[in-house]
Amino acid sequence: MSSGNNKKKLGMGLVMMAAFAVVLLLMFMPLFPGGKGGAKQNGLNYMDNLYNSISKDSAYYIPQVTKESEAYLGKPVTMELVMAANLALPAEKLAQNADLLLKGAGAQVQVQGDKLSVSGGLGKVIQGALKDADTMFHNKGEEVSKLYGGANAKEMLYTWWALLGAMEKSLQKQKLFSEALFVDRVKKKAVECAYNYYKIVPESIGERWGIVLFSLIFYVVYTMWYGYAVMFLFEGTGFRLEH
Known about the structure:
243 residues, mainly alpha
């Protein structure tokens, strides 16, 4: 390869890499609308929020799961539950929150530290979790908070998630496998989903198809641009990139 050709490719590589860096810098600058409190946000957060909004519109399984839960109405259960601590909440606090949730769903509860003795209707407890999850999915956390004496709504929804996990283990020990499997479905398809999408406003992809299409094309072109820039830099310095 001639020296002149090397210099030409090196120059192209440098220009392309510089353009790549400029675009990358712009992506990290607060130039896009939709941030908290009306503030600007960077491009990565903008796209992340956009795709979260679009995915929320197609992740609403709660009505379906609620209909399925009717099969468990009138089924009495007795469970010994142990709440597991996490980085945010100690086990005892989770147990106290769970006491509120279970009693609100009509169950009889005794609490001792991180342990709960529970008896009541499985269907009613499940539908209590589904009702709160549905309220939170629609970003009405203040209603959940009011229902439990001003408690933090997200904390209570997380408690439902932890509580359902403990219920699943107890039901499995009793060899109530069908019930345990459905409790896990409620946990993942309703409570976990509502927790992750809380405060996100759903949008239809049909309404934002233009920006979605642009983002996909941009991603492909931007990735290829970087690849060619690296290739020209290597070839411009005398290296040959081969298959």
